[in-house]
Each structure stands twice: as C-alpha cells, then as structure tokens.
Amino acid sequence: MKLDLTGKRFVVTGGSSGIGAASARLLADSGADVLAVSRRADPTVFAGLGSVQVLAADLEEEGSAAAIVSAATAGGATIDGIVNAGGHFSHAPILEATAAELDGLWRVHVRTPYLLTQQAIPHLTDRSALVFVSSTVVRAGFAPYAAYTAVKGAVDAMARSLAIELAPRTRVNTLMPGFTATPMMSEQYATADGLEGAIVARTPLGHIGGPEYAANVVGLLLSEDSGYTTASTVVVDGGWVGQGWQSA
Fold it and tell me: Which of 57, 84, 79 minimizes the C-alpha distance to 156?
C-alpha cells in the first residue's frame, strides 16, 4: 500500500508485535515519524526504519498516558494521529475470571486510551486522526470471552462518541479485526486442538489474514484519502462475521 505521510507524526501503542507493529512499519514506510509504544521496547522490530522511536510503557500502569504524550511531543512536536492497538487477551470463563483480571483489561483497552486521547488533544494538529482497535467479538457471541468482549465493546462505543465530540478537527474511526495471524492468536492454538483449522474452514476467504491487512486499513484511515470518514468501523476478518449461519 502506497501512502504519502511525509512530515506526519503518529503514536502507535502495542507497537512491538501484531497489528501495532505492522501499522508502525507501514506508517514509517510511508514517510511518517512514529513513536511505537510497547511493554517490551525492542528496536530490532523496526530495524532499518530510522523514523521509528521505540518507547517502553505498560498501558496498565498509572501515568503511562502522560509518559507517552510527553515522549511524543518532546521538543515541541505535534501529533497527527494515534493508533490505539495495545492490548492483551483473556479467555477465562466468568466463574474463573477475577476482578483484577477484568480491571487490568479495562485499564489497557479503555482507561489508558481514553486518557491518552484526553492528554494528547492540545497537541493534535488540525486534520488529525485517531484509530481505536476493537474486535469482532463485539459483533457476535464468543465464549468464554465475556471480560474481553466487554472492554472491546467499550472501545467501539468510546470511539464513536469521540468522533462526534472531536469533530471537525479530529477524525476518529475504529478498526475491528477478526482472527488475525499474530502472536496473540498463535498462543491460543496450543490450548485448543483444531482451532486454526476450524477458523479457516469457517472463513469465506479461506485463510487467516496477517496483520498487514489490518495495518493497510489503519494507514488509510489516518491518511487524507479518508478525510471524509469518521465515526466509522471497518471490519477486517475475511468475511467471518458477515457469513452468519452459513458454513463452508
């Protein structure tokens, strides 16, 4: 995907792997300066991309939003966009999930992105854009993922409201990926025999897409090519949700 984002500066959370890392690479390849935020600040992920700065920050910790904004605006820099891709997964049944686990999911997926947006607003440029990463678990019942589904549903709702509140200066959209070939997904294969094959069999496009597909949408939503798009949700799942009751 060829975008011209020369001179732009973006913040990407969850930048060490998966959709976050793929988005950071795409933005940098398109000429932007990128602050990639992750718990594990591994610069080797972006070898050869001198326009990517890596920041270690745990989104579950108090003060992480302020630290990210401070790093992004060092030297008086402004911010053209934020990709809220950071997060972790939980598949504990409701009878086993703890309050602490639910609180941790909330802080990472909702509270810190909310505070990051709030504190970044004074530094956002005109025609800036935000992308929040939700999930297709919001569109269908998934078990045993009630805690994860709850916070991803909140992300979806929060983004739509922010799109209205921050218009016309800032556009806000949601990326809703489905099953994606990321480390988070691969970890689940070891705990559920046949899971990968079952997903492929039920996906109309016949394969599990890599994070680059989602990253391409992120880049487009951040660019002026999507300058009239806000309060929208883009599903990237190979048709999984849209298939409904039919099977392959």
Answer: 84
